[in-house]
Amino acid sequence: MMLSNRTSGRPTVGSRSSSSARRPALFVPVKHVSRVAPLRAQNEDDEPSTFGKNIDSKGAGTSFTSPGWLTQLNMLWGGKSNVPVANAQPDDIKELLGGALFKALYKWMQESGPIYLLPTGPVSSFLVVSDPAAAKHVLRSTDNSQRNIYNKGLVAEVSEFLFGKGFAISGGDAWKARRRAVGPSLHKAYLEAMLDRVFGASSLFAADKLRKAAAEGTPVNMEALFSQLTLDIIGKSVFNYDFNSLTSDSPVIQAVYTALKETEQRATDLLPLWKVPGIGWLIPRQRKALEAVELIRKTTNDLIKQCKEMVDEEEMRAASAAAAAGTEYLNEADPSVLRFLIAAREEVDSTQLRDDLLSMLVAGHETTGEGGRGRGGGGRISASTTAFPNILPHPSCSMQAEVDAVLGSRLSPTMADYGQLRYVMRCVNESMRLYPHPPVLLRRALVEDELPGGFKVPVGQDVMISVYNIHHSPAVWDDPEAFIPERFGPLDGPVPNEQNTDFRYIPFSGGPRKCVGDQFALMEAVVALTVLLRQYDFQMVPNQQIGMTTGATIHTTNGLYMYVKERGAAASGSSGVAGGKQLAAA
Ligand code: HEM
């Protein structure tokens, strides 16, 4: 089914900015839907809003149910604001910060419109943005040398203990220099090498792990499986290191989960003791996290040391020559990011190198909230995980048909196949629209600013871009709750991104701080789904309570269980050929 997108001349949340009007977006927005307030600043002459509560001249909410004293202390708008305030109680917020915050953000968007203020404490608040034009403005003005208005704010603060000086959280010139150095490591030749050697091989290994469950008819927690698979993949791709996460509980993996859990808790701590210098080791929760970071850093340092011993002058000369010629350097025996960076001989101290690699490792796995619950559970992998339950009941499901048609007798895709797996790609894209991870992006205003629509942003204001709201807004997408891979246009058209949707689709963010691993991530998800669907049929375990929660990313509360069944001999590749290679495991 192809969706016809509709347009309207009215200025709504989904309306185009003047620049995009000159260069039309590829995926045209839908027309105004009355459930969401139009993007429009409120001023003194306006009728009282039916959508949100204004801060009145005394600074308190106009409704007795609004946050009262909290709002009053939040007089960030100089006494009379043009920004509606979410009708949230302090207790709601405390509770919600530990749970599915993105769902509450959606509810407040329905009540207060696409731009509203969410008080979170006596002197703290978030300006919540659920409008593509405003999101575009903020994201494009982050670490932008021409227009530097925002930085990563709270994210950088709460994860500094883990990432150190890593480029995922640093800013300004330091960030720019490191992004320029590390970004090229994920070049086209690297991705081609990864597709076959890592994405395909690790997915085949994961498929093999399912055989026992298929034979015994026991349900499999697919979220845990995908989480382990991505960790396996990111370890090999970044460090050429085998975490062996599909078969064992590595202490380093546990340490990563523990540290991520701590960043999550720091983001929601009402009493941020972690800000007090020197007391971290005295507080059990923080001590545990600091010990975890020590282990992660030691492991990373050891891997850097080993790699340095392998790289000789000749390799460094080859890497420099490739850089000078503008070609892509790849060590055939070890195409990892670590090897690339060491061979490229970047003038950088080893702490910086370690922290940048950790940025790649953690941002590349992006799993949260499972620290105390053992292995598994990952937000990021929901691109693949959520594709399953969404697609299986889909009457026109042609994902498996496409996989069979493209792969023939092969068990995993080649690079040429990858370009043909267009419906699988659309299913991944659509899953990331419905379940964006992270569901929110945080920024902080460095100077006073004004959002499109005239909303004032004071210096120091924390801004929360709700990717979830933008992706689910009926003012932005037709039938937003439905899983419709075809909504992005013809299959032979471009893969949707923030540019060709004019920031209506931003799972990888946008602007200068956009995800550096987007192509890696899409390829990884498509390959993993393809390999599994090639060999197995999947069926949801009926009546399970999946539940969704969020920290830095969306994940399930109870896992996502499915029955797996091996497909017939022809479908499961009786030739035993995987990506052109003979399979040992299958
Ligand atoms: C489905 C998978 C992924 C999703 C949804 C995702 C999403 C994101 C998002 C939204 C950001 C920007 C955050 C912001 O604007 O504040 C980001 C940044 C980043 N991502 Fe990803 N990512 C994924 C996979 C990966 C992978 C596989 C890698 C590495 C191989 C990676 C490395 C990074 C790094 C290093 C940054 C920081 C970039 C910078 O600040 O300059 N990501 N990611």
UniProtKB/TrEMBL annotation:
Disordered as annotated region, ranges: 1-23, 38-63
Domain of life: Eukaryota
Key words of the record: Heme, Iron, Metal-binding, Monooxygenase, Oxidoreductase
Residues forming coiled coils: none
InterPro entries, A to Z: Cyt_P450 (IPR001128), Cyt_P450_CS (IPR017972), Cyt_P450_E_grp-I (IPR002401), Cyt_P450_sf (IPR036396), Cytochrome_P450_Monoox (IPR050196)
Keyword flag Oxidoreductase: yes
Gene Ontology MF terms in the entry: carotene epsilon hydroxylase activity; heme binding; iron ion binding
Full protein name: Cytochrome P450
Species of origin: Chlamydomonas reinhardtii (Chlamydomonas smithii)
